[in-house]
Amino acid sequence: MENKIKDEELVKLQGLVNHVNRLQLELGQVESRKYDLIAAIPGVRKELDEFQNELEKEYGNVSISISDGTITKPQDETNS
To answer: Which pTM value belongs to this model?
Structure first.
């Protein structure tokens, strides 16, 4: 008797080990992408703040709908 597992057992074992390895590799790629996204957020927030300041200089202290661009003045200014 040989000291080996059956061929079909070996195939299944290799397949499962390869699957675990692929999942670990994919997880590493996801974590790397996550790091890139986290690093990008502060820059985009800064750009948004700067643009909001530009809009405030242009239109004053108003609310602007991001869905259609409608400008709404604060309540205290609409009653004056």
So the answer is: 0.67
